[in-house]
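hi! just following up on the protien thing from before. the input was this:
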Amino acid sequence: MAEFDMIVIGSGPSGRRAAVQAAKLGRRVLVVERGRRVGGVSVHTGTIPSKTLRETVLNLSGWRERGFYGRSYRVKQDIGAEDLLARLHKTLDHEVEVLEHQFSRNAVRTLRGEARFVGPHGIEVRAENGDVHTHTAEFVLIACGTRPFRPDYVPFNGATVFDSDEIIEMPRLPRSMIVIGAGVIGVEYATIFSALDVAMTLIEPRASFLDFIDKEVMEEFTHDLRDRNVALRLGSPVTAIEAPEGGRVTCRMDDGRSVSADMLLFAAGRIGNTDTLNLEAAGLTTDARGRIAVEPKTLQTAVPHIYAAGDVIGFPSLASTSMEQGRVAACHAFGLQPPPPPEFFPYGIYSVPEISTVGMNEEEVRKRKIPYECGVARFRETSRGHIMGLDGGMMKLIFSLKTRRLLGCHIVGEGATELIHIGQAVLNLKGTIDFFIENTFNYPTLAEAYKIAGLDAWNRMARV
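and the predicted 3d structure came back as:
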């Protein structure tokens, strides 16, 4: 008989949700975490730190008030790295305490150390002091997360060249910075530091970035970046990086250009933390980026009693979806079939300004040849937008001409990641344009943009 019903490797969003779900089903659960405290990448270097840093920057810089008081306005004139870290550590301590209490009250056992498979059901855990513990379980969930991709040509030094896990512990605030990689992480950090008036250069080898976002929304976002003097270097890869001790970092690019700055953040991809798991002993393999393939509906790997969830299985690599994956995996393992997940989930990018999207974008609708119409609302059209001093921000709703149903909701601007959930609900409940036209929204709120965008689309549809 196995010692545990389930062993969970990793205590990030998917691992902790799976552990708690299994415990609530009356199962014996062990969570193995190799970090100093539970929480995983999400709590300690990823989701929570970056979003806390963003909120700290927007508060201390007075970013939200500059529409009234001018671009030079600041709540705190001299902002240093120590100011950014103070709030971060308080937030992380709180997150860890909540998680530890959650494990405690659900009788989830935790063990600190590095896990590796010694067989399909056996897990060996090596503690920091060298002690080795071996445990067995009927089911195993791999929720070990990812770490930044660190290619050899990047001279990481912890002083002027950082990866996305190290940047939150930067020793000082630079006057200029280069970000290589215009994915979600790179764009978030580039815009966060831009809000602190750090001169930013964003480098991306592809000719475009964030291609899954609606193009009209990206045009609005890109215009905002250029208006803030964020330099975009798209379509040319970096060929060399020079980081002399005590000097500025220089990037040489394929098109012959070069860019110099005080600091560099390399944020071009992440790889799975699977290299130390000895997956071969369990009969598993990974792709080139260390990710594990799973059956999408059940989260089972090629070995049926071993599950994987979270960033280690790849897209969408969101904390929100990872939590649900962990819950689904635990339910399936113990014979509880959860209802099928909703068709659409929201995607949030915590840049400055925020971007959030759910459903199909206009390019996807056109590709499927669905007759459609769009409605657009600018935040400055709302009374709340005027009160907040917003110059930018927009909402775009896409409706089917045939069924009048909402097909997609796309937002860029203040509060986008909060506002998106109204669109998500209407979309998953198969609601139509009539919801936005007939319902009353609190006044004054940014949510009024839904009514404005709905009426804008309805006016166009009426003419058709």
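The chain is about 30% helix and 25% strand.
The mean pLDDT is 93.
cheers
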